[in-house]
Amino acid sequence: xxxxxxxxxxxxxxxxxxxxxxxxxxxxxxxxxxxxxxxxxxxxxxxxxxxxxxxxxxxxxxxxxxxxxxxxxxxxxxxxxxxxxxxxxxxxxxxxxxxxxxxxxxxxxxxxxxxxxxxxxxxxxxxxxxxxxxxxxxxxxxxxxxxxxxxxxxxxxxxxxxxxxxxxxxxxxxxxxxxxxxxxxxxxxxxxxxxxxxxxxxxxxxxxxxxxxxxxxxxxxxxxxxxxxxxxxxxxxxxxxxxxxxxxxxxxxxxxxxxxxxxxxxxxxxxxxxxxxxxxxxxxxxxxxxxxxxxxxxxxxxxxx
Length: 305
Prior knowledge:
It is a single chain. By secondary structure, the protein is of the alpha/beta class. It has one domain: Nucleoside phosphorylase domain (Rossmann fold), CATH 3.40.50.1580. Helices cover 26% and strands 22% of the residues. The protein has helices at 10-13, 19-30, 117-124, 183-195, 216-224, 235-243, 268-276, 279-293, and strands at 46-50, 62-68, 86-92, 95-101, 129-138, 148-156, 200-207, 229-231, 247-257. The longest helix is centred in the last third of the chain and has 15 residues, at 279-293. Mean pLDDT is 83; it is low at 1-11 and 296-305.
């Protein structure tokens, strides 16, 4: 692990999304997304990726227009349950946002570079703050389904060559675990959830490749290793966002609680149903981000290409 003093500031590590992502951003605008918004010169100040069962969060966006993610020619079509595969553009509290309803996963057979393309597209649309969400299994016995965990760190148990995801080579990505997740955004996320009377806590996310759910022994191992929740996504997006200099906060909705000594059967439909129960908390956090951390509208120029 790198020492704190060796961490690059965001300004020095920020890179420009690849030309393909910029072309995809132009495709979104050409499809009419930005032209139909009240202020067509605005930036997408906040980018959002909605995980399994959380697509309804996008319904709270005003002035929205949407296109299929695959129509950009940059994003792949998700085959996972509970992922609509759309890009929704609109405003929250007057702040422009761009939302991906769903993501692709490594277990669907996609190459590592495909897993970070959604984040690259959001950055190309102008987002500087990123809210990532997912559905996860809870590893602590005091957790309950529908609770939201604000991720403070992760265990990457896949260790794919994430450098390929941004085309920078093996030496391009050197993420420091102390700086991947924005502390101020996480604190505000917890505060906004609690202010709304909704359950939320901080925790560590364990990333496994899937698609099978964990065995009883794996649950015990993950808990002993310090993980609070476990899932099959998000970490590649966090790494790419870090490289691009974006501020990141991650909301993980607990859909089931692991009880190794009395395991319950879980399937994708159950996960989708229970994830939806955490949508209110995610929505409250997103609205708080828009009002507190959203950038002011631009008065001239064009959205970034």
